[in-house]
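Retro notes, item 3 of 5
We never archived the inputs for the 4'-phosphopantetheine complex last cycle. Fixing that now. Sequence and ligand:
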Amino acid sequence: MATSQRSAVYPGSFDPLTNGHVDIIRRGAGLFDRIVVAILVNEQKTPMFTTDERVAMVREAFAGEPSVGVETFDGLLVEFAARHGASAIVRGLRAVSDFEYEFQMALMNRRLDARVETVFMMPAAEYSYISSRLVKEVVMLGGTVTGLVPEAVERRLHTRRARA
Ligand code: PNS
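Structure as it came back at the time:
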C-alpha cells in the first residue's frame, strides 16, 4: 500500500527559540512525518537575533533529527506551506489569551487556502508561561533562563548581553 508523507509547517519569529517551541516541535514531529520550522523574515521588526542566527539555533537544537527542518520565509504563510507540500500549520497555545489572535490567523489562513489545516498544540505546563520576549527581558536584566531555552540559545543570549 502506498503511503503519503504528511508535512506540517511551524511558523513564527523564534527570536529566540525557547523550550516551549522545542516542546511543540517535538509534539508536531510525533504527529507528522516532517515538520518545517518556518522563521518569518520581517523587515518591520528589529529582532535581537539575525535570521541566520535564528536558523542556526533551531539547527543546533534538532541536529540529527531529519524529520525536523528549518527554513525562512516572507510573504504569505499559506504560500510557503503549499511550496513545501505541507497539509498543516502547527501553532502552540499557551493560554486563553493566545486564543483570539490565533483564531483570527487560523481563519484567515483557511480563507486564503482551505487545503491547509491549522493544528493547535499545548506545550507542557512547565513551559506555558515562557515567551521569547520575556526570556530576552530576563537575560538583559541579569536574570537566569536556564531550563527555559536550549543551552546553545542561553549561551548566545549571554553573549548578546555582554556585548550590549
Ligand atoms: O511567533 P509569531 O511572531 O506570533 O508568528 C507570527 C506568524 C509568523 C505566524 C505570522 O505573522 C505569519 O504567519 N506571518 C506571515 C504573513 C501571513 O501569511 N499573513 C496572513 C495570515 S494571518
